[in-house]
Write a structure and sequence with these properties.
The chain is mainly alpha-helical. The chain is built from 26 helices and no strands. Helices cover 80% and strands 0% of the residues.
């Protein structure tokens, strides 16, 4: 009897000892908590170790797989992240955080449709998940689907109306679809919520520029630079604003400062504005050097070759102009951007006396770009060719289109005036010469139109 009781006591003590040891061992939940803390503290390797221990203890823990997937995302190891997040969703199909994290994974793997699907499921499960709306809006922006992006920013604002970035993002979308009043309202709200961030003012300034309110734009760019004296984009766009305002010395100073600060927001705009400044000052060699530097940075850019070719045309160096323009067409002869290149070569042929080839290339330019902003200039160029061969009615038809596209196109008024003069319509000619004077900021156009008016008195 004594021996039996002793065995029972030993068995009892063994059970108690085992339970005590088990109670002292960390649980899967404690490892998950530690993993979360290490992930937040950017101790990623330790976080992975924590989540892996949790999985070893509880292989059915969706939270452990989801947590480890988030860490792999933070480390940029997206294939590993995807495997873990797939497993987390398999274990818990209602885990909105796993869908959100997998959306982030797909986004960084450039699997945008899958990312949209994941973010969509995340907000279905948790409609107040603002980050999912924000990220999905960003994807829609990449696809130029501004209406859907606006809807997502609006959903985020509906959940949290105090986040300036949501208003800034939605304002940018409104600006892209030319709803400028709504864009300005959102930019104003963003600044009201966050008046100390430079890019809030930059965004509004760019909107003012598109509205041709350069004085207001300049105030915003000044404020952006005041808030951040090393804000390269601020100098870049202020330089572009000064260029449009024809304050070329200030523009050149700002553009060079932007380049010094490595602003890359709009390198095409940088090169274009800087070259425009030098061209306006008749310093064609400096302008050509700008596009030469651009070509050195990207030798596959057709537009860079075309723009340098155009400057050679302006300088009268027709051989170099044709080399550059033909190189541009070799790189791109079919995209919408190529309309400007065909226009350049048409202008080259016109300048060198080959009207037939000029018309052929200008016809091609309009075939490609009749609905582009550049169309007005192309019509004006073709009209000048028609004028030179005395096809005045065709020239007037093209100039009418130029003026329809831009009611302040002084050069178009001037050449239409010449056509009317040639057709012995003095009243129409005088009206157009006066319109050219009233519309122009180019002194050479003003002088030529003024001389025509004097000759008709």
């Amino acid at each position: 009897m004594l021996r039996k009781n002793a065995l029972l006591v030993l068995a009892f003590l063994s059970i108690v000892f085992t339970l005590a040891i088990s109670a002292c061992q960390p649980s899967a939940a404690s490892y998950i908590k530690s993993g979360d803390e290490n992930n937040t503290g950017k101790n990623y390797d330790q976080a992975i170790a924590d989540y892996s221990r949790a999985i070893a203890i509880d292989p059915g823990s969706a939270a452990a797989y989801s947590g480890r997937g988030r860490v792999y995302n933070n480390k940029g190891e997206y294939n590993l992240a995807l495997a873990d997040l797939d497993k987390a969703i398999e274990l818990d199909p209602e885990s909105y955080s796993a869908y959100y994290s997998r959306g982030y994974t797909h986004l960084h793997m450039q699997l945008l449709d899958q990312a949209i699907a994941d973010y969509t499921r995340a907000v279905e499960l948790k409609p107040d998940m603002t980050n999912a709306y924000w990220n999905r809006a960003w994807i829609y922006l990449q696809n130029n689907d501004y209406e859907k992006a606006i809807a997502d920013y609006s959903s985020a604002i509906g959940v949290n109306g105090t986040n300036a970035s949501y208003y800034g993002g939605r304002g940018w979308c409104y600006q892209q679809i030319k709803q400028y009043d709504k864009a300005l309202a959102d930019f104003n709200q963003a600044i009201e919520l966050d008046s100390d961030t430079a890019n809030r003012y930059l965004s509004r300034g760019l909107c003012y520029m598109q509205l041709n309110q350069n004085d207001k734009a300049l105030i915003d760019f000044d404020k952006a630079i005041e808030l951040d004296n090393n804000y390269g984009d601020g100098y870049l766009f202020r330089g572009e604003c000064y260029t449009e305002m024809q304050d070329y010395d200030k523009a050149i100073s700002d553009l060079n400062k932007a380049f010094e600060l490595n602003s890359t927001a709009n390198m095409m705009g940088y090169y274009y504005s800087l070259a425009t400044c030098y061209s306006a000052q008749k310093d064609y060699d400096a302008a050509i050097l700008v596009w030469t530097q651009a070509i050195e940075s990207d030798s596959q850019s057709a537009i860079y070759y075309n723009n340098r070719g155009w400057l050679y045309l302006e300088k009268g160096d027709y051989a170099k102009a044709l080399l550059d323009i033909n190189k541009a067409l070799e790189l791109d002869s079919t995209s919408q951007d190529s309309a400007s290149i065909w226009d350049s070569r048409g202008w080259y042929y016109f300048k060198t006396g080959d009207s037939n080839r000029a018309l052929s290339d200008l016809d091609k330019a309009l075939e490609i770009g009749s609905d582009m902003d550049v169309a007005g200039e192309i019509y004006c160029h073709r009209a000048q060719v028609y004028y030179s061969i005395r096809e005045y009615d065709k020239a007037i038809a093209d100039l009418n289109k130029s003026i329809e596209l831009n009611s302040k196109y002084a050069e178009a008024y001037f050449y239409r005036g010449l056509c009317y003069k040639a057709l012995d319509k003095p009243d129409d000619a005088k009206a157009d010469f006066q319109a050219a004077i009233n519309s122009s900021t180019d002194q050479s156009i003003i002088d030529k139109a003024t001389n025509e008016l004097k000759s008709m008195q």
